[in-house]
């Protein structure tokens, strides 16, 4: 029930007790509408019989009606009207509709009360658990933080530090000192997410947690002020109180206070399934060197001691990672005051802080440390474990009563208690000083379990991600394995000296995350997310000072065949990788490294150099994206690319390279792979530098139109390289024909992998391809065909003799004409979409499904399968054909990765999908992207949900709305070094093509308007806001139909929804 309705019942209680008649008609209406149950009816009748009618009415108004849900009040009014008591209903309605404009001074008093509250509560930050009264002045010690924009299409903010929000609210409470931005808000409301639990409105949470008890502002006035005034809502710690919290979800989804700015904070991974509701998301950057220095200087000033010891601490390389976190840096400063020994892991840091807390608690309470541990801390570990299981940092008094000596436990220093005097009753709550301490204490409890109990707890964790989005059903669910790592990391660190127990835990992680298998995702310069599950062991190893020999032996025995270091790998991933460098792998583990978007060049250079020097690591390939030709030169020279004892495979993104960085530019004499992305004729010096190197792989991806010089250099590389085994040639987009190179490929005796884009191929080119296929040397073949004549017949005939082929990827090739697919023995097959929509594309209809199903029955060694169904909404697949396809896939028992795009999944085929997945015991990754229809219902999803959430299965399952196109455009522009300020769909839902408005910086306008930036089929024009100076507003409108009239363009579809294309670009 709404607060205003409850207040109405309270304010009119005397009137109703004297006017309401508990007639048979009233009771009949109340029971029929469900306002009261039969048992409650009997209770009221007993009270009326044994006491008075007024007593029964009072009981009804106070104990029953307010607890009967949001519709109970209106149903009560209706029941009054239908039982000849309309005058009572009219009195209540009149009270609700009376002018509730604010009394003189109400708004000003509300501002004053909030500012007083923030000034009292937020002016000090308490970071020392053993000194709950020792606070740091927020104004004097707070260091301004950097926020990194991670998405520009969302509303709200995702950050990590509650101090930032406290500083905003505190700044608003000091109007003479606040910035103009924060002063512009009439009200700033700062609430913990837990404050909204059990509330009926935001106003109720404000009254209970922010305002004094003796100011009884009517709820309806408060709600009206929130609606009418310029209000900033700040909700802290979503991750700590998101469950059973309806109001916070309504705020995020725009169902309450929709037009008010909303700032939400959460730890990473908890807000992922809500990010589609946000206009912007940010991540708090870790302290840089300047901010670290400022932090320790302010700390020293607050403690009235010299800052020199803390400044010298910052120079220690072993704790650089810890110093980037403000809480950790504060704790390091506290330890520096105690002694000079440095702790280089998070576990070591918190363990030492814990020892200090235990020692000081013993001194205060006249107990030995052993007594503090046994009688106070171990019950606290259990208490923290139970709070963690409930995802709580604030616990209620009723929970504390279950713990013996709880008040003495609070005196240790980890818990603070506060008394909340609400309008109903006094409540005592206990709060842990920081969630990280909850995690540490929980880990202490688990570390003290016996091995079997601890292992049982770990086995119930999830070790695979899932991301499920079905917008039509409002299903939005995520899990990321990193959510468990705060606890697991502490446990690893705490058990470092217990070699056998640590090895047992690590063995479980190795098994559950398939650490010993091939990484899930190959590295790419375009899309390179960290493989969170596969890297979990690395992040846990980062918590160890030294890897025990017993554990090292297990890791060496169960070593992975390859490790990828991705651009967005965490600091812990990289620290763990350096731990592996100290192990003795024979032979060394191959490693690929993509740090192309790293901002700190010095740090990136140092990290890769350490990998190169390791004898246990074979740093095989590196991806680089130089910002200019100088950076290219520095990278190649700094990492000695191509040298015998360094990296010999390199991928270079050429987009921003202009001119030759040096006349003597060269690679080392052992360069074995050269991959060039967005290659242009001006980059010919890169091909020249590779001319006399022993290349085994040459790849030109998304290259622009080649001139005669480039073609000559490529031919020299193809003809002079006896060891060349892999070639890839693709253009951006369709700017270059490559078919004439097939004659050169036909002369290469060792060619094993070929990827080529064929456009309008000639008969001579097809004869060259036929010769390549019949030689039976290819193990991998990728063909992108665009009007290539007899290609399909050449492929089908060639499949008879291609017993060596193991990987086949087809784009815009119609498999209806490839029945000989069944003669192959493949481990990896992909039926891919075109990079951009065209009139010529592969058609996967019922006949195509039949051919594919027949082939799948013979591919018993298949490990990876990717199927992209047709973009054309007019091409559909019969359910019986889909069932046959799923049945054929179910027989591929070695399948590990299964990927569908634009699959039509109706309820009727869900049982077949479930049966398929259940039969694939080795499946570790299942993806169904962008389902085409709306026929999957909630009932169908309930059957599917437990199957796709199977532990050990990484799942991505979504059905996206059209609005997702704006995100795809943003990502595409980002790859081309343009960050749009906004991307907004402007076409309506009935349009046969989609239009978007882009807002970009003035400096990017000329780049956006370049025709060669956009794929074929895109129409772009510049437009201006009517009421603004056109030089000040750069809006670009993008259409996907190239300006063709809708009636003439029935075959074109929305360019930006083609996932295969945008991921590739």
UniProtKB/TrEMBL annotation:
**GO BP of this protein:** innate immune response; regulation of apoptotic process
Any Pfam family: CARD
Q: Which SMART domains match?
A: CARD
Q: Does the keyword ATP-binding apply?
A: yes
Q: Which UniProt keywords apply?
A: ATP-binding, Cytoplasm, Immunity, Innate immunity, Nucleotide-binding
In terms of InterPro entries, this protein maps to: CARD, DEATH-like_dom_sf, LRR_dom_sf, NACHT_NTPase, P-loop_NTPase
In the UniProt record, does the keyword Cytoplasm occur? yes
Q: Where in the cell is it found?
A: Cytoplasm
Q: Which residues form the CARD domain?
A: 1-95
GO-annotated cellular components:
cytoplasm
- Give this protein's Gene Ontology molecular function annotations: ATP binding
Question: What's the protein name?
Answer: CARD domain-containing protein
The scientific name of the source species is Capitella teleta (Polychaete worm)
